[in-house]
Design brief:
- The chain is α/β, with parallel strands linked by helices.
- The chain has eleven helices and 13 strands.
- A hairpin with a 2-residue loop joins strand 3 and strand 4.
- Helix 3 crosses helix 4 and helix 5 packs antiparallel against helix 6.
Length: about 280
């Protein structure tokens, strides 16, 4: 059977140790502050990201991997014995990562490289990538894996809560006056992923009510289906993530393991510190 290597990018939010356990390679998103560049997963994480943001009072820019980054990753995979590659990318609606991977593939004429636009992000993309890695370990064919990953992508339910609009205002995505007023009256936006993009779903007053609303939305999305995987993600709020995990276990028939994941800087810079959310994959 051909050896298949699975590659993704760091917007998948896959914890490094979990990715390593499955042999998944992650191409990093770049973060840029005042001419200084950092690499997600190497020299910057959510905690250090927001330390810099709060000190500098400005958000950094981000950069998707360019084709040469994927060329290097593909070359390394083949040199390490891969016969075929499957690459699961963050939604093309929010990043040029997918197009970079497609361009890189053109440099490997005659080699089997499948690039998938996940149309998802954070651990929804991560779960799609894990699905690919598990299927590869079971010696599924490349065509079978692609079909399975694409079908898995339709079973993702992603919800999140922002504790403040401060960071959206810093990035110019929300007017500063509007953000200040929303924070003054304790408005907490509820987010979801719709059509491949992070979208504002509702606005709820107080953090407690927003968390409760997240739980209701998760219950409704699952309905009577079985939960196959579940992850709680956060941006620089590990305590909030632990609280969220406990609450989720109270209201949903959860799998034994709930993966706690950092949102990761490439995504966190667009949402802000304190984001709490969850991804549910149904069967």
């Amino acid at each position: 059977m051909p050896k298949i290597t699975v590659i993704t990018d760091t917007d998948s939010s896959l914890p490094p140790q979990l990715a390593a356990a499955y042999g998944i390679h992650q191409v990093p998103i770049g973060i840029h502050f005042n001419g200084e560049s950092y690499t997600t997963g190497l020299d910057i994480d959510d905690h250090s990201l927001f330390e810099k943001v709060d000190r500098l009072k400005r958000l950094p820019t981000t950069s998707a991997p360019n084709p040469s980054d994927f060329i290097s990753e593909f070359e390394a995979a083949f040199e390490q014995g891969a016969d075929e590659i499957i690459c699961v990318c963050v939604s093309s609606k929010v990043s040029s990562t997918y197009s970079s991977a497609v361009t890189a593939r053109e440099h490997f004429s005659g080699r089997e490289i499948r690039v998938i636009d996940s149309l998802n992000l954070t651990m929804a993309q991560g779960f799609m990538t894990l699905t690919a890695a598990e299927a590869a370990l079971q010696h599924a064919s490349l065509d079978e894996i692609v079909a399975l990953v694409e079908e898995t992508g339709k079973k993702m339910h992603t919800f999140g809560m922002l504790p403040t609009l401060k960071y959206l205002a810093l990035g110019g995505r929300v007017d500063k006056t509007v953000a200040g007023l929303a924070d003054a009256i304790n408005i907490k936006p509820i987010l979801t992923v719709k059509d491949g993009k992070l979208d504002m779903l509702e606005k709820v007053r107080t953090r407690r009510k927003a968390i409760q609303r997240l739980l209701v939305l998760m219950e409704q999305s699952v309905h009577e289906e079985k939960i196959q995987r579940l992850s709680v993600f956060h941006a620089n709020d590990s305590e909030g993530a632990a609280e969220m995990e406990a609450l989720v276990r109270e209201v949903l028939p959860c799998p034994a393991e709930i993966i706690i994941a950092e949102f990761t800087p490439g995504l966190s810079v667009h949402a802000g510190s304190g984001l709490i959310g969850a991804v549910v994959q149904t069967v």
